[in-house]
């Protein structure tokens, strides 16, 4: 409900009050149409690839291809550059745009933020974003050598943001 007064909630029973904020939109339709076309193209390519492999090898022997297609779809939902590095100029990343608006607010409020991703490449994109926003952070991945120091730096309050790789970091130390 976005911190609005309870009577502003627009759900199964619509209740509005005069003090409720007005809904506003600021979309760039052309930019989002390009993003939608790109995402549809990726989805269709994965669908066609799976159909072809299943036709040739059967369903039982196509599991790796299906899992790979699902991985690509999950990656493209995080950021199109994780699948196709040439898309960064034309296809926006909804997650990075959202983080760019929310992270500065949360850090300014003194909040402590844990941000997880299975993809270290996505963490690198987020790292680049928060560096540009001048938000101090810690990064914990499989490549981190002194995990204890990184965890202690966040726990002591030196930095508001902790970027964590789910693949490598979680089982060992948090």
CATH topology of the largest domain: Rossmann fold
What is the CATH C level class of the largest domain, in words? Alpha Beta
The run of helices and strands is HHHEHEHEH
Largest sheet: 3 strands, parallel
CATH superfamily of the largest domain: P-loop containing nucleotide triphosphate hydrolases
Find the structural class using helix and strand composition. mainly alpha
Whole-angstrom Rg: 21 Å
CATH architecture of the largest domain: 3-Layer(aba) Sandwich
How helical, in percent, are the residues? 40-55%
Please indicate the count of domains.
2
Q: In whole angstroms, how far apart are the ends?
A: 31 Å
Inertia-based shape: elongated
Number of extended strands: 3
Low-confidence stretches: 4-20, 169-174
DSSP strand content: 5-15%
Average of per-residue pLDDT values: 79
Task: Please characterize this protein's 3D structure.
The structure is a single chain. The chain has 174 residues and is mainly alpha-helical. The chain folds into two domains: 29-87, no CATH class; 94-173, Rossmann fold. The chain has six helices and three strands; from the N terminus they run αααβαβαβα. It has helices at residues 29-57, 63-78, 94-108, 120-132, 147-155, 170-173, and strands at residues 113-117, 137-140, 161-165. The two termini are 31 Å apart. Mean pLDDT is 79; it is low at 4-20 and 169-174.
């Amino acid at each position: 409900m976005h911190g609005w007064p309870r009577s502003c909630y627009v759900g199964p029973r619509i209740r509005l009050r005069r003090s409720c904020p007005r809904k506003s939109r600021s979309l760039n339709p052309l930019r989002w149409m390009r993003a939608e076309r790109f995402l549809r193209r990726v989805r269709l390519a994965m669908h066609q690839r799976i159909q072809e492999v299943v036709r040739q090898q059967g369903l039982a022997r196509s599991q790796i291809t299906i899992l790979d297609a699902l991985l690509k779809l999950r990656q493209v939902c995080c950021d199109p550059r994780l699948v196709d590095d040439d898309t960064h100029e034309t296809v926006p990343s909804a997650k990075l745009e959202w983080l760019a608006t929310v992270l500065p607010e949360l850090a300014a409020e003194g909040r402590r933020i844990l941000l997880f991703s299975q993809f270290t490449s996505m963490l690198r994109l987020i790292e680049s974003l928060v560096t540009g926003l001048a938000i101090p952070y810690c990064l914990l991945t499989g490549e981190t050598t002194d995990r204890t120091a990184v965890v202690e730096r966040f726990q002591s309050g030196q930095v508001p943001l902790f970027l964590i790789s789910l693949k490598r970091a979680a089982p060992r130390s948090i």
